[in-house]
Amino acid sequence: MARTAIVTGGSRGIGRAIAEALKNDGCTVAATYAGNDAAAAQFKEETGINVYKWDVGDYESCKAGVAEIEAAHGPTDILVNNAGITRDGFFHKMSPAQWAEVMRADLDSVFNMSRQVFPGMRERKFGRIINISSVNGQKGQMGQTNYSAAKAGMIGFTRALSQEGAFKGVTVNAVAPGYIGTEMVAAMDDKVLEKIVAQIPVGRLGEASEIANCVSFLADDKAGFITGAVLTANGGQYIAS
Ligand code: NDP
To answer: What's the CA gap between 203 and 199, in Å, rounded?
Structure first.
């Protein structure tokens, strides 16, 4: 069955690969982004996927944005909460703004977006919510108390909401990527990156398409018995139970 999907932060990086994979799976996909109009326009031209611009950290914008997408594409069957940012810094120097920006974009967004689509999914007795967490939400990472807390929060959210959705055919799962070669990671200091790659048993960064494959699997009708799970894809860097 053709499904409709929303991918937040779908215009670049991992989100772009997810949007493309879901399209290839036969879904009608809408991708959201925050402000990089040039990247979004290029993405739309290259993929034919419609883009929508708003801040997923803002509840009312999510309400209006999802309504606009659903008016164009129909009810949302699949939501991928992928949008995220980093504002790294050691905790003793971290500003309230660094903390709040990450919480807003990475964790509040998950509430803001899921809250729009979950009631309809329950009513229609089908839904897939897939949250892109991080290995650093599982193990913690120095310099990222804000990001690690937000990404760990996504996992708690996933486990709790999965219990509310299960009986109604709505699965809620998380994917926890390790280090993937996107702009977010390219922005890191070369020496830090070298040390990180040295800790990855497969000996390389992951590819965005490898995370997209995980999402494609969890979004499929065939994955209906999997809910509340955290699928780790980190090249063996961290083996989580
Ligand atoms: P990118 O920085 O490449 O892309 C981020 C995307 O999210 C962009 O489309 C951006 O829009 C959008 N976005 C950011 N903030 C907002 C906001 N407030 N409202 C709406 N859209 C927003 O990120 P990655 O592809 O690297 O990461 C994607 C997800 O995967 C993130 O949640 C990240 O934490 C997670 N992750 C990434 C890893 C990695 O190694 N890259 C590892 C583990 C997890 P715009 O283009 O307009 O800026």
So the answer is: 8
pLDDT at 1: 67
Distances 74 to 3, 11, 13, 81, 159 between C-alpha atoms, Å: 9, 21, 26, 19, 27
Angle CA 213–168–173, to nearest 5: 30
Report the relative pairing of strands 78-81 and 50-53 from DSSP bridges: unpaired
Catalytic residue IDs: 147
Q: Calculate the CA dihedral of residues 38, 39, 45, 46 and round it to 10 degrees.
A: 150
CA–CA gap between residue 76 and residue 205 (Å, rounded): 32
| DSSP 8-state class, residue 92 | G
pTM: 0.97
CATH assignment, 4-233: 3.40.50.720
- Give 35 Cα–ligand 1 centroid separation in angstroms: 12
Q: Are 113 and 156 in contact (CB under 8 A)?
A: no
The parts of the chain modelled with pLDDT lower than 70 are: 1
Ligand 1 center to 167 CA (angstroms): 31
Q: How many CB atoms lie within 10 A of CB 61?
A: 15
Round to whole Å and give the CA distance between 115 and 138. 24
Give, as one character, the DSSP assignment of residue 155: H
CA distance linking residue 236 with residue 72, whole number of Å = 41
3-state SS assignment for residue 46: helix
Q: Which residues line ligand 1 (CB under 6 A)?
A: 8-9, 11-15, 32-36, 39, 55-57, 82-85, 105, 132, 134, 177, 179-180, 182-185
